[in-house]
Amino acid sequence: MKLYDFDGMFDEKLSQYIQKHAGEYRESEWEDIIPQLYKKFGDTPIKSIGKTPRQFYADMSGEELIKCLKAHLKQEVSVSEFLCEAIESRDLTEQLIPLLSGTESEREYAVNLIGSDERVIKKYLEMLVNSADVDFKNRLADFIKEKADLVVGEVLEYYEKGVDREFMLEIMSRSVVRNDKIFDILIKEFRCDSENVPMHASYLAAYGDERALQYLLDKIDEETVTFIEYQELKYAIEALGGEYTKERDFTNDPYFELIKSHSATAVDLFGGGNGTKK
Fold first, then answer.
1. pTM to 2 decimals?
2. C-alpha dihedral (60, 66, 67, 70), degrees to nearest 10
3. What's phi and psi for 102, nearest 5 deg?
4. Which of 2, 41, 103, 225 sits between 20 and 30 A of 53, alpha carbons compared?
5. Which phi and psi (to 5°) does residue 147 adopt?
6. pLDDT digit string (tens) for 113-149?
7. Which residues, in sequence order, are bridge partners of residue 51?
8. DSSP β-bridge partners for residue 46
9. CA torsion, points 157, 158, 160, 163, in degrees to nearest 10?
């Protein structure tokens, strides 16, 4: 299969364009211009090929597109957005699923192209617990959370075995179907893990069970609550339909003082007075 490095071709043309228009645009303007040029390049016929980059891939069958992607990755030829767009425009999940068991680059591209299709959620969970790449685990978790109810049983088992507990808590907190076991776990972790109060409060907010309100209200009322914890607790309370109006003094809280000083500086910069008003 003949491979074309469309990104490399674009980079050459972009380099020429930048030299030609040197000094005409600020860096922030180039950030807007370059994507526009790339889009235009995708619809520009290339003489040596006789087609535009988009048309080149549009003329391929689904099977050819997947073979092309694998060839690009194997030969380390840049995978252009035009190839990804062509794959995403068709229902090629079944053809992409085998790549989830392939090389690292195949797995990463397959996950990004498949997204949160329910056919792969269980496979994603299996990949998550077997991966050592935190960024990849986070990406998998983001997709799993969209269909969390499909893997609740497996997630609870992993949690009970102590496997990737924080990921399991995050996933189960996105479950839509109410489950007393999940609620009890989220409450237990919220009450027992004093080092990560904001995170566990966010899980309760995401889960959306109003029974958590009293636990949140009891916690936010504690004198030892930090400003960061207070903010997340207050958000969780409001997310569950509650309200907390008690005045709190965080004058000696380092994070609160840092925010206040930054706010004051910003006000001073824009001529807004001494910045002492909250």
1. 0.86
2. 140
3. -95, -150
4. 103
5. -135, 40
6. 999 999 999 999 999 999 999 999 999 999 999 999 9
7. 46
8. 51
9. 170
